[in-house]
Write a structure and sequence with these properties.
The chain contains no helices and 31 strands. The protein has a single domain, classed as 6 Propeller (Neuraminidase), CATH 2.120.10. Strands 8, 9, 10, 11, 12, 13, 14, 15, 16 and 18 form a ten-stranded mixed β-sheet that branches. The N and C termini lie close together (10 Å). By secondary structure, the chain is an all-beta fold.
């Protein structure tokens, strides 16, 4: 399918202060790239689908982890995890009585696969029959071709945690090899704050990032040196909707060992933020994209983008693009030219239309949103940028199929003609 550039309207907001702020540079040579036709990721047997997919890649090998839920009317009995590799197929799962809620994968510099997932405390996974409304523990295991899966370790156990459906904030300090995981969590009597887990010298350590009270969503680049910029959303949607779900940044200059005080990047002002992605481009400029709700609908109806070339000290003006109503989730990534791509799930103006994927691109300015795979009822998009370009994985079934038809896992890639 070919996506052409068309005229659009751009809203540019000037950054605060009188000084000029440098913006991320975009190479125009990537503008002729187009999405491939979607195709099934793999034969579904013995699993059916990879719901809420998480992606990682190493040396051209793609890893996808997800939950085998073909229909939400299905029972949740049995382990739900599937981890699939483009080179190895289904690589099994760690041993133990787990449900593997929202599994996330990450590949380190030694090509070791790291798997993280959440569990609901106090209830054995084998006794679950309904979707867990609250998760309280975070687990970790690794996999390599020689030794298979490691013994799972519980690396966090608390009162409540927000382990996300969206990509988790997992990153590696490329200068030291330390692994960082950040998520909103609660340790009574404190409110939700950002919890930081750091794996170094064979041990996990945890602390709370000061000043992040009220955090509900977080993102950071998956690879960084000593300087890392984290974006997060803090606050809950209130009746007044003023100040709720504003966007903040917090940064570290020592790979996450210590953190600078958080800074407000954007106040909600009645337009609460929902969903956030932060990533580095090839020039190590930081990009941040978040969704905003600008109507009485629950979903997202606009994207906002800002960039920083000094790891969050100063930021460019914000650029916005309007979206269809009732966008429920999105995934974003940057390409090798510094452009930003976002794929989102849209349920129509009434919120009841079967899911479809939309696509919009920023290459200095936003393009026009477009349908990506109109022939499919599609959900749960995940994007990955690697040496092969941009890869998209999602779950879908043909439009017009019976409502009780199973979803399968599909893939597409962004490349030149």
């Amino acid at each position: 399918m070919k996506l052409c550039r068309v005229p659009y309207t751009l809203l540019l907001l000037v950054a605060s202060g009188s000084e000029a702020v440098a913006t991320a540079q975009v190479d125009s040579s990537c503008r002729d790239r187009v999405w491939s036709a979607p195709h099934l990721l793999a034969a579904p047997a013995p699993w059916r689908t990879l719901r809420f997919p998480s992606l990682a890649a190493s040396g051209g090998e793609l890893y996808v982890a997800g939950m085998d839920i073909a229909r939400f009317t299905d029972s949740l009995r049995g382990p739900l995890l599937v981890v699939w590799s483009s080179a190895q197929g289904n690589i099994g799962r760690p041993a133990g009585d787990f449900r593997f809620v929202f599994p996330k994968v990450f590949v380190d510099q030694r090509d070791v696969l790291h798997l993280f997932w959440a569990e609901s405390a106090n209830v054995p996974a084998s006794q679950w029959t309904r979707w867990p409304l609250r998760t309280q523990s975070l687990w970790w295991a690794t996999h390599d071709r020689r030794s298979g899966w490691s013994i799972p370790q519980r690396i966090y156990d608390g009162h409540m945690m927000f382990w996300p459906v969206d990509p988790a904030a997992i990153s590696m300090d490329t200068s030291t090899g330390a692994l960082n995981v950040i998520f909103p969590g609660m340790t009574p009597p404190a409110a939700m704050s950002l919890l930081h887990l750091r794996y170094s010298n064979g041990a996990w350590q945890s602390d709370t990032i000061a000043g992040t009270r009220g955090a509900v969503s977080v993102s950071m680049p998956n690879l960084h040196g000593h300087e890392v910029t984290v974006g997060y959303i803090a606050g809950m949607i209130s009746a007044a909707r003023n100040g709720a779900n504003s966007v903040f940044i917090v940064s570290s200059t020592d790979g996450g060992a210590t953190w600078n005080p958080p800074r407000l990047l954007h106040a909600a002002q009645g337009h609460p933020a929902q969903g956030i992605d932060v990533f580095l481009d090839r020039n190590r400029a930081v990009h941040i994209v978040w969704g905003e709700s600008r109507s009485d609908d629950i979903g997202i109806d606009a994207f906002r983008h800002q960039s920083s070339v000094d790891f969050g000290t100063t930021w460019s003006g914000a650029t916005d693009v309007a979206l269809p109503h009732n966008v429920t989730s999105f995934a974003a990534a940057t390409d090798s030219c510094g452009g930003v791509h976002a794929v989102y799930e849209n349920w129509g103006a009434d919120g009841r239309t079967p899911g479809r994927l939309g696509y919009v691109r920023w290459d200095g300015i936003w393009g026009e949103p477009q349908d990506l795979v109109p022939e499919l009822v599609a959900q749960n998009p995940a994007l990955l940028a690697d040496s092969a370009g941009l890869r998209l994985v999602f779950v879908a079934r043909p439009r017009g199929a019976p409502e009780n038809a199973d979803f399968s896992t599909w893939s597409a890639s962004l490349s030149r003609h």
